[in-house]
Design brief:
Bound molecules: zinc ion
Number of strands: 8
Number of helices: 14
Radius of gyration: 23 Å
Structural class: alpha/beta
């Protein structure tokens, strides 16, 4: 605590009045674990907090819980240091297979705000929220108002038919897209809408920090605009580039930039089903398929042999369901995706 006080003091030397107020509240707060934690975080993050004019250390910060990595990244970008943002699904875990833990229930029970991607992606959420019994919880649906796509690019239903709306994964897990395909964050333009929804939700629940949320969201949206420009400029050189994917995560990206996702192949642990192989072969024969896109961390011999049979190279596209917690990670991963798409579509 003394270290924190000294840090607070040195960073607030020119704000004597504020310092006195802060110090007073600090001494009151001693003994309350929650406040101590928040203060420790505040002093760690003080350069950014100062810059953003964030909440003084004397106030307990708004506690925000975000469900999955992309939603967390956008929420963290908007909140900056004005709120404490935590994540439910560890960004090393498959979102679609996730089972909530007792810690998740506790986190939601003590949170002020819950932000979800929505569109049915967080199947674990309803029962977890119910168990948390938090009547004061504000819920933000980041996908509110977004026009969804139900299926992969509707080029040919016979290619996509065998699995209907199911969702292929490296673990062979199926996911029902009753609410439309949930992977909207992979389109930078729809990502802007998610950021805007999150911004408006945070402002409604925590109007004290309105100016910070607005400024942070504007900066992040500017970066998303730049990213969108880069995608447009690069991918307009390869219009209608046709690809096969192993995770039905890219229909929005494809629609935005004139690419065509013509088939989704399930990847089970042990063997590709004959139907899947047939589906891929049919799609390759029927369309001028340029690329096969797998996911990071999937090293599947079956894919490699399928790719050899199809005379295509397997490349890795990141759905951003796992990765780094820095809000800038979105841009890094998406720029890598852009490079991969450009290479695959050549
Ligand atoms: Zn997914």
């Amino acid at each position: 605590m003394i270290g924190n006080l000294l840090e607070l003091r040195s960073s607030r030397q020119r704000k004597n009045v504020l310092f006195v107020v802060t110090l007073f509240t600090l001494s009151v707060a001693v003994g309350c674990n929650q406040s101590n934690t928040n203060l420790a975080r505040t002093s760690e993050q003080s350069p950014q907090a100062q810059e953003a004019g964030a909440t003084p250390a004397s106030q307990e910060k708004t506690k925000v819980v975000a469900t999955i990595l992309p939603t967390y990244l956008f929420t963290k970008a908007v909140a900056g240091d004005a709120a404490d943002v935590s994540i439910i699904v560890p960004p090393t875990t498959d979102v679609h297979d996730y089972q909530a833990t007792p810690d998740d229930v506790k986190a939601i029970a003590s949170a002020n705000i819950l932000v979800k991607n929505g569109l049915g992606l967080e199947e674990f959420l309803d029962s977890t929220v119910k168990n948390a019994e938090n009547p004061n919880l504000t819920k933000i649906d980041a996908s509110q108002g977004i026009q969804t796509i139900d299926e992969i690019s509707p080029v040919d239903q016979t290619v996509t038919g065998s699995h209907g709306h199911s969702h292929g994964h490296s673990h062979g897990h199926s996911h029902d897209h009753a609410d439309g395909n949930p992977h909207v964050w992979l389109d930078p333009v729809l990502a802007k809408q998610q950021v805007t929804n999150i911004r408006d939700g945070l402002i409604a629940a925590d109007p004290t920090n309105k100016a910070t949320y607005e400024a942070n969201a504007a900066a992040y949206i500017q970066e998303l605009d730049n990213l969108d420009q880069e995608f447009q400029q690069t991918l307009q050189k390869t219009p209608n580039c046709t690809f096969i994917t192993f995770h039905d995560a890219f229909p929005y990206l494809a629609q935005r930039y004139n690419l065509k996702q013509v088939a989704v192949v399930q990847i089970p642990e042990d063997q590709l089903s004959p139907t899947d192989v047939q589906k891929a072969v049919k799609a390759v024969q029927k369309y001028n398929v340029k690329a096969l896109f797998s996911e990071p961390g999937v090293d599947n011999k079956l894919l490699t042999s399928l790719a050899q049979d199809l005379n295509l190279t397997v490349r890795t596209l990141d759905s951003l369901e796992t990765g780094d917690r820095d809000p800038q990670y979105y841009f890094q991963a998406m720029r890598t995706n852009l490079q991969t798409l450009a290479d695959g579509c050549k």
